Amino acid sequence: MKNIKTTAVLNSAHGDDNILKEFSSHFCKVGLSNTANADVKYKCQVCEYLLSHPQHSAEIDITFIDVCTVKDCISDLKLCKATAHDGISNEQIIYGGSQLAVHLSLLFTM
Predict the structure, then answer these.
(1) 78 Cβ contact partners less than 8 Å away, ≥ 6 residues apart
(2) Roughly how many angstroms between the first and final C-alpha of the chain, as a whole number?
(3) Are 86 and 43 in contact (CB under 8 A)?
(4) What CA–CA distance (Å, rounded) separates 56 from 27?
């Protein structure tokens, strides 16, 4: 680790500020979907499905996701990972506390 040097030039950008701008502009879209309007497309599909199925059948078995299950899943998350296009980091979920776990449980059970 002692022999690691920072770069002085990146894609013809010189100086720390310009290299930071070059790096940031390159990686700012890492978590974005490469399909235009993908979120809108899936939102429409979900809305159409929900409108065509207004009530759950009594025959459908809905698994209850309890708070303990959510907390177990949260405990498996790793720190210092990149966020996706939603901008939610693992740290936000991990440090969200018990109230977040309760709300996630309700969200996944509805």
Answers:
(1) 90
(2) 50
(3) no
(4) 43
Structure tokens at 4: 């690691």
Please state, in angstroms and rounded to a whole number, the distance separating the CA atoms of residues 22 and 10. Answer: 7
pLDDT at 56 over 80: no
Taking the C-alpha atoms of residue 104 and residue 71, their distance in angstroms, rounded to an integer, is 10
Of these ranges, 5-9, 45-49, 75-79, the one predicted with the greatest mean pLDDT is: 75-79
Query: Given the structure tokens 């040097």, which residue do they identify?
Result: 5
The position carrying tokens 């078995």 is 61
Across the strands, what pairs with 30? Answer: none
Structure tokens at 1: 């680790």
Helical segments of 1-110, H only: 16-27, 38-52, 67-75, 90-94, 97-109
